[in-house]
Amino acid sequence: MRIKTKRIVSAAVIVLLVVMTAAGCGKKPSESGFVPKLNTSSDVSVTVYGNYSNFEALESEFERFNEFYPNVNMSYIYLDGYGDAIANSLKSKEAPDIYFTFYWMWGDKNYNEVFDSAVDLAAKETGIDFSCVRESIIRKTADGKVQMAPVLATSFGMLVNMDLFKKEGLKVPATWSELEDVCRKFKAAGYASPLMGYVSSGSSSFEYNFAYPFLCNSAVKNPSMRDSFNSLDPKAGELMRPGLEKIKLLADSGFIDAGKCVKEIENNYNAAIMRFYEGDVPMLVCSGDVASGTKKRESQSESFSASPFEYRFYAVPYDEKGGFVIDTVSINFSVNKNSPNKDMATEFMRFLISAKELGNMASVKRLITTAKDFSLDNIYSSLNETPQERMICSTEANINDNAVKQFRYAAHHVLMGEMTVDEAIAAFGSLTK
Amino acid sequence: MKRGLTIIVNIVVIAFIIFFTAKYTSQKREESNDSELAVFKNTAETAGQIIMNYLADEQHLCDIWASYINHYASVAGYPMTIEEAVEFTRRASISDDVQAHIIYYDDASFKGLSSEPSLNSDEDFTVSYKGYSLFADFSEARLGHEIKQTAAFANPQNGILSMAFLNILELKAETGGTRKALLMRIIPISELSRKLVYLKGEYEEMDLAIIDSAGNYMIHGSQLKNSNLFEYYKSYNKTDYQSQREFEEQVTGESGLNEMTGSKGQTCVIAHTPVTPDRDWFLINIIPKAGLLPSVIDWVLLGVTVGALAALLIFNMSAMMVFNRRLVVTAEEAERANDAKSRFLSMMSHDIRTPMNAITGFNEMISRESRDPDILRYSEGIRMADNTLLSLINDILDFSKLEAGKLEIIPVEYDLVSILNDLVNMIQVRTEEKNLALKINIDADIPRKLYGDELRLKQCAINLLSNAVKYTAEGTVTFTVGYEPCEDNEHQILLKFRVDDTGSGIKQEDIDKLFIAFKRLEEKKNRNIEGSGLGLSITQSLLSIMGSSLEVESEYGKGSTFSFAVRQDVRGTDKVGEYEEAFRNAMESKGRYKRSFTAPHAKVLVVDDTPLNLSVFTGLLKATKVNIDTAGSGREALNLCARNLYDVIFLDHMMPDMDGIETLHALKVLKDNKNVETPVVCLTANAISGMREMFISEGFTDYLTKPIDFVRLEQMLLKYIPAGKIAVDYIEQRDDSATLPDEVFTIPELDVNSGLSHCGDAESYLNTLRMYSEASEKNEKEIRDFWNLRDIRNLTIKLHALKSTSRVIGAFDVGELAAELEKAGRLGKLGILGDELERLLHAYKELSSKLSPIFAPVRSDEGLAPISKEELYEAYDKLLKACAEYDYDTVVNVIDELSHRRIPDGEETRMDAIRTASDDFDYDVIPDIIRAGRKD
């Protein structure tokens, strides 16, 4: 009897151990669709170079990747002077395995080497399936190569302080006239600048974020003029008119106090967000990249911590039909084909290019996913309601970086009252900062 | 100890050892951890010093270059051009990894020349930091520090992550003037990392960073997230303003250790130390705490300990199993020995009781039938010896039952007075034998009808009383019975018994030994005192079963007090009342044996292999006139049963050839059995525990132990003989009443049958009537006196006595009237007493006056020839004459003649006096006697 009992107990313990061990093993692969192709015990280092001072969303993906390849040392390195240095970095003995690439690099001969160093991620041997990514935002070479994989998308619009609207009994404007009406009422209620943003001639400025959708819309409607515009043909300056006129209108109406913005918002990211968190800015015009930094900074703002409020990201109204949502890419990843760790870097890209991981990274970064199935973050929920015809992919507009710079200068000069709209259009191609 | 308990104790001990080991190793580990942390901190400080030296060296080299270039102007008379300066650095540099960039900052262009060409082109030495944030907030004033180094940046010439040491140059402008430029001595970050590579060997999971005083990383490893350590801390740790400030101040203060939660939720240890003399850069060494300080529990040690203890447990259990097996064998042996003891007890019981049955039975018959006082005295002696012997056997059997746990408490409704009577009767005899005084204190208010185990209660009290008498040589035995109500149950009382004696007493140290079975204290001294040594042990056990315990107080040499109290249910409202009176009445009513019934038509079969027992049985039932058939064996009994129908069959258990059980079984299946429904009672001398259950299960109707208690025997017959065949005892009463004087039946106030019933028989009844009559005059006077004095208390007592005695003799009218007045007396209702007392006394006197003639003295000359008064007076005259003539012979002759004659009423006294004087030769007084009161 005793022996029997002992046998039963021993058997039970063994079964329990086996069950627990089995439960502990192999759980991850069954939950995820990713199946490692390489030796999972590989002990290599993969370095990603980029211009984000920190990139926690990517680091969380490193950790998830390490669940399959626990010995792979993934690291992200911020490279000051990224645009100037990345080409040389790729040639150096400390070249990255994966590196950021941007739309603005595309077509710029200064960055030809950057793309020359990139692996064709669409090649069959990589095993990467791009079917989950929105086709329109994937840049391909003429021969169909994909040298940069879009991993985070963004857009342009405005952060809206919902509580202020409630307080003043106003609705978030969906049309241009509603925007004007709202601004008037805020002005009347004592808000010096109902619209604010980082006023500058640089990228991610108020001017650019506000007017770029207008420019894209014009470019899509008038491709031939867009080509002239890209060639900096002065005659093509007219493409800028709709956006510039709206900026002029805002400035003249006092709906934006440019001087106040210059004084109170020192940069297009941290300062802009912190100013918005002061709680007295009804609308902050910015990019999705700025919106992505909001969550983390909530706790850093004493004002917001003391008096939190609800906020959301909206497209800026363009006409009586609403605004345009620009679907553009914030970051692409390229794999250095000269890297000794190219295989593992490509394997990481294969892991990352999936609806789940792209969505996960976008969620952490609070940006828009590049996957087709984009379940937007709550603050972007209004964009989800945008009709398809009002969605413009930046690749469709296809305006090059030099032309964009001219547009930014023009917009800035108009806003600051340094040029009229006509003067700015006339000076297109020769505008300076 | 039960096995489960043993295992639990073992497990508890093992758990304690494991806990202790874990705790101890944990404590040791913590001490070791403190040491580890100190080493980690020292290592960080060492690394900090290395970095500090390295930075200082590199800065120094940068400063030398700048000094040389700037000093050139004072030697050559003009400053170096940028090309010359770059060329100088190219020549001065001894390491291929070190580059020099000289860039103009006076026009905020941050463009210039590099000592090495761009990777784009071997010819291209131009360099630009335009797109870098490195110099976004550059100002010359901010380079006032001794060490002027940059954060990590990508070297524009080769894209390698680098840092630069700075100094200011004054160069010759192309236009002829001078220009302000920055000298950058650039080294790859990997160079700096190489200086600390030994740390990685030391701490595999450690990561490094250098931060500035605002927490911004100058360089940092992959574990350190964000762009700023302080922001990283804020992101993953619960902070408030104060705690955040404290963390920042600590990290940018003196060398030290800190803790924070890392991005993976793990606790990390941070060692921080300044790496610049101005404390504007700090080395951060961060490592997961679990990596630095492995688990605080030494699992190997713990595992080995647990394993060893488990092995020990198994070993212990195995050893215990072996011991248990041996114990089982020993226990089985003990059990066999115990069985042997039980068998011995059973046999002893049987073997002693069998002859005792004959002794007791025949002695009973002797006491019934003999009138010879000597023989009756011998019989009483036998009875007492018999009782003692039986008591010893019963003690041993009770002890056996208690040991086996088979002694049960059987509660019944009982009359407390009856128990007290038995107890007092028993102890009174014994105290009288030893010339001891007996005091009885019974609380009159104790409820009379109780519910409990009457027999066991009596047994406990008897044991205490017997002991008191046994161990008291002279003095007093006091028996006290009281009670108190139970607060938690109004239907129960706590019945309290207490026995005090003035005996030898018990030494304090011996009190605990009182309850040890077979133990007798001071055996030498008490060797003449009979007893088994079981009495108190049994009493204590019985009381324990009844939820009580025996209390003992004793003073050696002065006496002892034993007491106990048991809960009993109360049935009815009657009280015990004045016990002494009730006892006296009971004793008065107790007479010699009288049969309780006759059943001349009943037929009983008794089967026993011992002829003596058959003789005892038939003798005991002779008076009942029951027809008794006897059988000497089972087979004979079966034959009788086939022929005759019996009302009850008494069947002995132990018989040769076919015992009682076998006979019963055979009887059940007997063909032509006429006694299928007849109750069969087992007669047995086996009185040990469990026997009753055994007999009933075998099919017997009942069970009677030997020696046969004739009262129980008669009760059993009354129970099993059909009621129609029982002639109840009124026949006997009538018989008794036939011996009563006719005058008794003529008194209407008396219910003679009730009186006979109360008193037992005619003789006792007549005695009681006589006492009632004789006391009447005195009682009447006392009652009247108490009333006149308004002494109501004593009056009530007297009325109570009158009530009881009147009821006993069957004078119910007087009794009821007395009861009413007693009640009035208790309640203090003087009015009723005043109204009714005379009526009672009148009725009492009336009854007494009717009784007194019945008990008038019987004359001695009854039956002689009467003499008339005339003849008597003539005889007196002859006597007077003879006395005057001193003719005393004549005097004697006359008196002798008169002695043969019946003297007329009224002259008996005179005649007796004359006779007495003659007998005393006192002839002179005879004339006076004759003349005195003579009326003629």
Overview of this structure, please?
Chain A is α/β, with parallel strands linked by helices and 433 residues long. Chain A is 44% helix and 13% strand. Chain A has 2 domains: 37-153 and 330-377, 3-Layer(aba) Sandwich (D-Maltodextrin-Binding Protein, domain 2); 156-327 and 379-426, Periplasmic binding protein-like II (D-Maltodextrin-Binding Protein, domain 2). In chain A, helix 8 packs antiparallel against helix 10 (241-253) and helix 8 (206-221) packs across helix 20 (401-416). Chain A binds chain B through residues 49, 53-54, 56, 59, 63, 73-95, 113, 296, 299-300, and chain B through 118-120, 128-134, 151-161, 188, 190, 221-222, 225-227, 231, 234-235, 263-264.
Main structural class of chain A = alpha/beta
Largest sheet of chain B: 7 strands, mixed
- CATH class bucket of the largest domain in chain A: Alpha Beta
Low-pLDDT parts of chain A are 6-31
Biggest sheet architecture of chain A: 6 strands, mixed
Name of the CATH superfamily of the largest domain in chain A: Periplasmic binding protein-like II
| CATH architectural category of the largest domain in chain A | 3-Layer(aba) Sandwich
Helix-and-strand structural type of chain B: alpha+beta
Radius of gyration of chain B: 62 Å
Portion in beta strands of chain A = 5-15%
Gyration radius over CA of chain A: 25 Å
The number of helical runs of chain A is 21
Query: Averaging pLDDT over every residue of chain A, what do you get?
Result: 87
Q: How much helix is in the residues of chain A?
A: 40-55%
Low-confidence stretches of chain B: 730-738
Q: State the CATH topology of the largest domain in chain B.
A: Rossmann fold
